[in-house]
Amino acid sequence: MMAWIFWGSEVLQQVLASGQFAITAEVTPPRGGDASHTLEAAACLRNRVHAVNVTDGSRAMMRMSSMALCRLLQEAGIEPVLQMTCRDRNRIALQADLLGAHALGIPNILCLTGDPVRTGDQPCSRPVNDLESVRLLQLVSRFNAGEDPLGGQLPDGGTRLFAGAAADPQTRSWNGLTSRMRRKREAGAQFVQTQMVMDGQALRRFVDEITAPLGLPVLAGVFLLKSARNARFINRVVPGACIPESLIERLERSANPAAEGVAIAAEQVVHYREMAQGVHLMAVKAEERIPEILDLAGIRAVESQPLALAAS
To answer: In the prediction, which pLDDT does 301 show?
Structure first.
């Protein structure tokens, strides 16, 4: 009988370290206790992406625990990226979850501050924000070095967590973005995953002027648009979204907006491949279309399975 060994299944880290083009995708945990539908959606991504990113209370809405779904993905042979936000946890809870992720063998952590609670479906909730993304990255670095945050060393050695940071290359504050990315790199960020990028020139400038000098690989965010109405809704409710009117009009003119959205996403994958080290694909409630996007972009199967197996 064979059983997965989760440590050693650090495919994303190995792909980025080798300079290969990395592909990740995103799934949202269910709004309930049954993860079967989400796991079915993720199953179509096996051998098409290197890792699957699991959102953590995205848009400040109630969902199943990101860590629980990451573990279920592992058991299905899919490498996860655990999003961890500071909005809902104090430092004690964050410390506990990081150690728990290590114990479960979850290799990748995306460190986030989190969307404001006022944007979600429970705006009366009290945000915690004891830490923010930079200090969370610092905490991961300390744990990886085997340091106890209260002093001394962890009794059983350091953790093995591959930490990433988020960024918006289309932000209006370029100086602020430059400073914050430098701080995230100094705090221990090892890769960057961007918000959806609709402006290739902004992405190229972000890579050339900010991340490349810092030695940070970038996964450029590609978002699947389903219709003109969907695009306008995203512009209205998603913080930082800036879908240009030219793309919205292209969707409006199309006889098949869903197929047009796939074509737009595939074009972005091809374009961004020239400037970033990878792409992060977001197709909310349409994950089954991600292989179609990759096919259209000329990207076939990838090695996405855990690299180490052992007899039990």
So the answer is: 85
